[in-house]
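User: Structure with flavin-adenine dinucleotide, tokens only please.
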Amino acid sequence: MTTTTQADKTFFGGLSEDFDPQWLLTPQQQTLQDKLIDLCAKVLRPNAIASDQNLIYPRKNFEALASLGLLGLLVPQEWGGLGENHTCAAMIVETIARYGCPSTAMCYTMHLGAVAAALFRAHDNIELQTLLQDLDAKVSIGTLSYSDPETGSHFWYPVSSRAEEIAAGWQVFKRASWTTSAGFADWYIVQTTSPNFDGDYSDLSCFLIYGDEAQAEPHKWDAMGLRGNQSGSLLVDGVVVPPQRMVGPIGDGVASNDEIVDPFFLLCSSACWNGIALGAIDIAKKHVTRKKHVDVGMRVADYPTIQDYFGEAIIDTSACRMYTFSMGQLMDRLTNNCDWSLHADTLALPRSAYLHWYWQIKFSAAKNVAHVCDKMLHACGGSGFKKDMEIERYLRDGKAGWVMGPTNEILRQFVGKSALLGFESLDYWNQSVNERMLHNELKKMTAEDKRKLAEILLAEVDNSETLLKRPEMAMASTGRD
Ligand SMILES: Cc1cc2nc3c(=O)[nH]c(=O)nc-3n(C[C@H](O)[C@H](O)[C@H](O)COP(=O)(O)OP(=O)(O)OC[C@H]3O[C@@H](n4cnc5c(N)ncnc54)[C@H](O)[C@@H]3O)c2cc1C
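Assistant:
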């Protein structure tokens, strides 16, 4: 049964509910969506305009979301949350981006990712449980701090970060180039190399860091779109945290990435790009159905060219939405409707096997949003080029989709390469040698070049063997203390 009235959505003058896959939502989820759409009209959307104009962090929008219990959307009901599932998370993010504020939708995506990372390992961690039970009452905003200044969009490779085991717990050093909500979040899930790091960058661990322990530079944030998102740098400079602030066991980083951080980020960010595409279609529909050309006695919407623009934009966006929601439903099925208790078994990683599918939904949604916003601008003509119609803001916000890590260049290569050469060929941490390329390059060298190279390599081997025998020299040479 659909509970949202047409009037609620047509307040925005956009597409009717005939084009929404409401059958995917439970009656409770539809009721929640109704309330959220109302909140978007009254609070989130007016704030979105101010956020964009003045680079304001959308904390007021988070306060509004907390009034519906949405900060604890995924938290089990016995811990005071809404106990909702993956499909619902995608719907909420899409709705916020479409009717409310895309910057808030992205900050909320990162919040949900951080909440999920905490829920994943909360079963035996009182600190995480306490945090998760207070999200709405305290308007406690979380986020994910992963990207490293030295490795760009390879956010799984934190070369500038590390952690040490000390008597009091852990000493955490995190340097991040981008962190949504940096300086505004109340808590961060950060990833570093593990305390026992020995040069293997796949050995990663996660930590919970509170807002007053991290240094941010929000005054430096100024971007083309998602301007309320405040994705600035973050520094955790040797902060000492107690043992329970490690999220999961030592070395849990890869499991956490593949099972939680990537699936949730890719699901919810795809929903964000779909919501932005729909928001642009809504705005454009409102304009083209009202604007008239007196000379020919027609509205802009009466031209077949314009109808074609909308037909294609709706069909492509519906494909991306169904693709995204289908992955949400798969995650629900894999986890007994998002039952976090199954992770009491730390080896239970049901979402991880489908990583290559999450890559694909993000690629499609991020590609589609840029195209759709562009076409909706064309459909509105010069009027769309002006700020007051809001379509240019949606277009700028949507541009973040392609460049946000994992970027669409990386994703399409992951999919193509793994399909052709196998998943092991992806080599995230630069560990396996491409013998084919190596031998091809060696073929180009003269005998003298090869001799010189061999001497250099032998010297390197001697040097590393000496360092292995005298580890104090190895410490000095890597600069790690
Ligand atoms: C709005 C926004 C919010 C963000 N929020 C967060 C956050 O909350 N937390 C967080 O951790 N990070 C966040 N990020 C960071 C993001 O995930 C990336 O790390 C960041 O966008 C990378 O930017 P860069 O300039 O270093 O790109 P680069 O990595 O330098 O990329 C430059 C170009 O090289 C291409 N490229 C890079 N590697 C490859 C490859 N292996 N194969 C093919 N092409 C490649 C890229 O696709 C791109 O075209 C955010 C980014 C944005 C834009």
